[in-house]
Amino acid sequence: MPIDERHIADGYSFTDGTLFAQRDMIIFLTFSVVVVTLVAQGLSLSPIIRLLRLQKDNTQRGEITEARNLLISNAIDLLKTRRDIEGETRRCLR
């Protein structure tokens, strides 16, 4: 039996026309698992780092990473400033 694209994109039924049983419950459970997983990991990361007593990376690799992050942050700020200046210039020229 050929696959009908309407049924695949639809998500309410299978290709043979039978309805997807408990679709809303599956979507709810999937959403719940994803949200709880993200929230649990986000809230537990800081206490775990404190518990393990992880220290800041002071090696050369850590310093290079910190310098790169600082450069990227400054570059983004510069681009935002230039965009704002160009926008103001265009408004003044109109």
Brief descriptors of the model:
94 residues; mainly alpha; 3 helices
Give me a quick take on this structure.
The chain has helices at 5-10, 23-52, 60-93. The chain is an all-alpha fold and 94 residues long. The mean pLDDT is 79.
What does this entry look like structurally?
The structure is a single chain. With 94 residues, the protein is mainly α. It has one domain. 74% of the residues lie in helices and 0% in strands. It is built from three helices and no strands. The protein has helices at residues 5-10, 23-52, 60-93. It starts with a helix and ends with a helix. The mean pLDDT is 79.
Helices and strands, with pairings:
Layout: H1 5-10, H2 23-52, H3 60-93
Unreliable stretches covering 5 or more consecutive residues: none
| Residues in β-strands, percent | under 5%
Q: N-to-C SSE series?
A: HHH
What is the average of the pLDDT values?
79
Give the radius of gyration.
26 Å
